[in-house]
Write a structure and sequence with these properties.
Low-confidence stretches: 1-8, 53-62, 109-119
Pfam families: AUX_IAA
Distance between the termini: 32 Å
Keywords: Auxin signaling pathway, Nucleus, Repressor, Transcription, Transcription regulation
Largest sheet: 5 strands, mixed
Radius of gyration: 14 Å
Subcellular location: Nucleus
InterPro entries: AUX/IAA_dom (IPR033389), AUX_IAA (IPR003311), PB1-like (IPR053793)
Number of strands: 5
Mean pLDDT: 76
Number of helices: 3
Helix content: 10-25%
GO cellular component, one term: nucleus
Oligomer: single chain
Length: 119
Protein backbone atom coordinates (compact mmCIF):
# COMPACT_ATOMS: atom_id res chain seq x y z
CA UNK A 1 0.00 0.00 0.00
CA UNK A 2 1.25 3.48 -0.75
CA UNK A 3 2.23 5.41 2.33
CA UNK A 4 1.27 9.00 1.80
CA UNK A 5 3.61 11.65 3.04
CA UNK A 6 2.31 14.51 5.13
CA UNK A 7 0.78 17.51 3.42
CA UNK A 8 3.67 19.60 4.75
CA UNK A 9 5.94 17.91 2.20
CA UNK A 10 4.53 20.02 -0.63
CA UNK A 11 6.56 18.50 -3.45
CA UNK A 12 5.36 18.37 -7.02
CA UNK A 13 4.07 14.99 -8.14
CA UNK A 14 6.20 12.58 -10.13
CA UNK A 15 3.69 10.73 -12.31
CA UNK A 16 5.15 8.06 -14.59
CA UNK A 17 3.51 5.57 -16.92
CA UNK A 18 3.92 1.89 -16.07
CA UNK A 19 3.65 -0.89 -18.62
CA UNK A 20 4.00 -4.63 -18.21
CA UNK A 21 4.87 -7.09 -20.94
CA UNK A 22 1.68 -8.94 -21.81
CA UNK A 23 -0.69 -6.49 -20.13
CA UNK A 24 -3.16 -4.78 -22.48
CA UNK A 25 -3.15 -1.50 -20.55
CA UNK A 26 -0.86 1.04 -18.93
CA UNK A 27 -1.06 2.44 -15.42
CA UNK A 28 0.17 5.72 -14.05
CA UNK A 29 1.71 6.11 -10.60
CA UNK A 30 2.99 9.07 -8.61
CA UNK A 31 6.41 8.01 -7.34
CA UNK A 32 6.33 10.75 -4.68
CA UNK A 33 3.58 8.81 -2.87
CA UNK A 34 5.97 5.95 -2.10
CA UNK A 35 8.79 5.88 0.41
CA UNK A 36 10.81 2.95 -0.89
CA UNK A 37 11.25 0.35 -3.60
CA UNK A 38 9.33 -2.10 -1.39
CA UNK A 39 6.27 0.18 -1.27
CA UNK A 40 6.36 0.63 -5.03
CA UNK A 41 6.86 -3.10 -5.63
CA UNK A 42 3.86 -4.00 -3.48
CA UNK A 43 1.64 -1.49 -5.26
CA UNK A 44 2.73 -2.61 -8.74
CA UNK A 45 2.17 -6.21 -7.75
CA UNK A 46 -1.45 -5.42 -6.92
CA UNK A 47 -1.96 -3.40 -10.11
CA UNK A 48 -0.70 -6.15 -12.39
CA UNK A 49 -1.49 -9.27 -10.34
CA UNK A 50 -3.82 -10.72 -12.98
CA UNK A 51 -0.93 -10.84 -15.47
CA UNK A 52 1.46 -13.00 -13.48
CA UNK A 53 1.90 -16.54 -14.74
CA UNK A 54 1.44 -19.61 -12.58
CA UNK A 55 3.16 -19.37 -9.23
CA UNK A 56 5.39 -16.39 -10.01
CA UNK A 57 4.34 -13.35 -8.05
CA UNK A 58 4.92 -9.81 -9.17
CA UNK A 59 4.54 -8.60 -5.60
CA UNK A 60 8.22 -9.39 -5.07
CA UNK A 61 9.44 -7.96 -8.37
CA UNK A 62 12.71 -6.78 -6.87
CA UNK A 63 13.78 -10.18 -5.60
CA UNK A 64 13.48 -12.45 -8.55
CA UNK A 65 10.36 -13.43 -10.34
CA UNK A 66 10.21 -13.99 -14.05
CA UNK A 67 9.51 -10.26 -14.45
CA UNK A 68 12.10 -7.54 -13.96
CA UNK A 69 11.19 -3.89 -13.35
CA UNK A 70 13.12 -1.39 -15.44
CA UNK A 71 12.88 2.33 -15.95
CA UNK A 72 13.86 4.97 -18.46
CA UNK A 73 15.93 7.72 -16.89
CA UNK A 74 16.11 11.39 -17.91
CA UNK A 75 18.94 10.59 -20.35
CA UNK A 76 16.80 8.02 -22.18
CA UNK A 77 18.78 5.04 -20.84
CA UNK A 78 16.97 1.94 -19.58
CA UNK A 79 18.10 0.84 -16.11
CA UNK A 80 17.01 -1.76 -13.59
CA UNK A 81 14.82 -0.59 -10.74
CA UNK A 82 16.76 -0.81 -7.49
CA UNK A 83 20.21 -0.06 -8.88
CA UNK A 84 20.33 3.51 -7.53
CA UNK A 85 19.21 5.03 -4.21
CA UNK A 86 15.44 5.58 -3.98
CA UNK A 87 15.59 9.40 -4.03
CA UNK A 88 17.75 9.38 -7.18
CA UNK A 89 15.34 6.95 -8.83
CA UNK A 90 12.32 9.17 -8.08
CA UNK A 91 14.09 12.21 -9.53
CA UNK A 92 15.34 10.50 -12.70
CA UNK A 93 12.54 8.06 -13.63
CA UNK A 94 10.52 9.02 -16.73
CA UNK A 95 8.61 5.73 -17.16
CA UNK A 96 8.54 2.17 -15.86
CA UNK A 97 8.38 -1.13 -17.71
CA UNK A 98 7.96 -4.53 -16.10
CA UNK A 99 9.63 -6.83 -18.60
CA UNK A 100 10.33 -10.51 -18.85
CA UNK A 101 13.68 -11.28 -17.23
CA UNK A 102 15.06 -12.74 -20.46
CA UNK A 103 14.71 -9.32 -22.10
CA UNK A 104 16.55 -7.50 -19.32
CA UNK A 105 19.96 -8.91 -20.19
CA UNK A 106 22.23 -6.03 -21.08
CA UNK A 107 20.44 -3.41 -18.99
CA UNK A 108 22.84 -3.77 -16.09
CA UNK A 109 25.14 -6.39 -14.58
CA UNK A 110 22.48 -7.27 -11.99
CA UNK A 111 20.09 -8.42 -14.72
CA UNK A 112 22.59 -10.96 -16.00
CA UNK A 113 23.23 -12.23 -12.48
CA UNK A 114 19.48 -12.63 -11.81
CA UNK A 115 18.94 -14.57 -15.02
CA UNK A 116 21.93 -16.86 -14.37
CA UNK A 117 20.74 -17.60 -10.83
CA UNK A 118 17.34 -18.74 -12.17
CA UNK A 119 18.87 -21.33 -14.51
Amino acid sequence: MAVQKSSNDAQPSAFVKVSMDGAPYLRKVDLKLYNSYSDLSESLGKMFSSFTIGESKLVDILNGSEYVPSYEDKDGDWMLVGDVPWEMFVESCKRLRIMKGSEAIGLAPRAVEKCKSRS
